[in-house]
Amino acid sequence: MRFVDYQKGGEPDSLFIAQAEAPALTAGKVRVRVRGFGI
After folding, report:
1. CB 26 within 8 A of CB 1
2. Which domain of life is it from (predicted)?
3. Residue 14 vs residues 2, 10: alpha-carbon distances, Å
4. Phi first, then psi: what are they for 22, rounded to 5°?
5. What's this model's pTM, rounded to 2 decimal places?
């Protein structure tokens, strides 16, 4: 999932911070980004 964010040019730093603080929220954000990416 992280690779998708890098290719899309998203914010990997924000994802890392979110994972450290709230893994559940990060998973939700990743799903939304993946859907928006068209996968």
Report:
1. no
2. Bacteria
3. 11, 9
4. -150, 90
5. 0.20
Mean pLDDT value across residues 2-24: 58
Positive/negative CA dihedral, 17, 19, 20, 24: positive
Q: How does pLDDT run across 25-39, given as a tens digit for each residue? A: 666 666 666 666 654
**The residue count for the chain:** 39
The residues, ordered by sequence, that sit 6+ positions from 37 with a Cβ below 8 Å of its Cβ are 4, 7, 8
DSSP state of 11: -
Cβ partners under 8 Å of residue 7, min gap 6: 37
